[in-house]
Input
Amino acid sequence: MQQNYLSHKTDPAIENTSGQGFSAAVPPDIEGWNWGAFFLTWIWGIGNRVWLSFLALIPIPLVGLAMMVLLGIKGNEWAWQCKKWDSIEQFRQQTAHLDVLGYRSFCSAVCPYLRAGIDYSGITRLLWLYLTIAQ
Output
């Protein structure tokens, strides 16, 4: 039988299990993908006291990527279990802020390279067109 964690404010019988470690029960509303944990890895881990996130810093290429994916999948659960939260609403607000920060940091790091690749391919096409016409 599942408990309704959404009504924890009105029902005093439902306990807030956040911050009680990895064995703590996680409300079903908390589960899901965490973009902040995926993009920010160890920075997100410091803020949420999820020290496993430091494994993303291991300089073996696939370990870092695997840890990013694992943090994305389990990040919400681990953040709930490792840090004390006042409510699910507070947790969701904080998660939303970190998601936006993660998106922005990813875009600011990756978009210049994507644009450079597009510019490079455009220059290559113009050069090819010029050489084709010149013959």
Summary: The chain is about 60% helix and 0% strand. The CA atoms of residues 41 and 89 lie 22 Å apart.
